[in-house]
Amino acid sequence: MRTRRFWSPVICSLVVTPIALLLGLASGGAGHGDYFAAMLLFLYTMLSAAAFDNLYLPFVLLAVIQFPGYGTVLGYMNEKRRVGRAAATLLVAHAVAVVTVLLFASENFS
Fold first, then answer.
1. What is the pLDDT of residue 45?
2. Integer angstrom CA distances of residue 87 from 43, 46, 77, 79, 96
3. What HEC string does the chain produce?
4. pTM for the whole thing?
5. How far apart are alpha carbons 41 and 35 in whole angstroms?
6. How far is residue 92's CA from residue 66's CA, in Å, rounded to a whole number?
7. pLDDT tens for residues 6-39?
8. I need a surface site. Which of 5, 24, 30, 89 has the fewest CB within 10 A?
């Protein structure tokens, strides 16, 4: 069984995920929004939308597991007492992907 150090970031990510999903959906505005929040939060899914000009189910599922994945990585690294380095790495990777998605966003998702 994992320790409390592992589960704290995982549980936080599970709490954040539905909130982020609602914000991402709301930013779409039933097709009349700008998807800006979705591009900032679910950048890997939105990169796929830019690449394929459509949102496909596997990439939508990626949006659902993105934050729990971050939480799992942070939980594992928290057990190893390297959570700061892991958080900084995730932040930089996320920021680079945000810039990429903003540069390559298709006109359907901007």
1. 85
2. 17, 22, 9, 13, 14
3. CCCHHHHHHHHHHHHHHHHHHHHHHHHHHHHCCCCHHHHHHCHHHHHHHHHHCCCCHHHHHHHHHHHHHHHHHHHHHHHCCCHHHHHHHHHHHHHHHHHHHHHHCCHHHC
4. 0.82
5. 10
6. 15
7. 999 999 999 999 999 999 888 877 667 777 888 8
8. 30
Phi, psi of 36, deg, nearest 5: -65, -45
Tokens of 92: 């930089």
- Kindly state the tokens that stand for 12: 């936080």
> Tokens for 52?
């394929």
Q: Tell me the two tokens of residue 100.
A: 């990429």
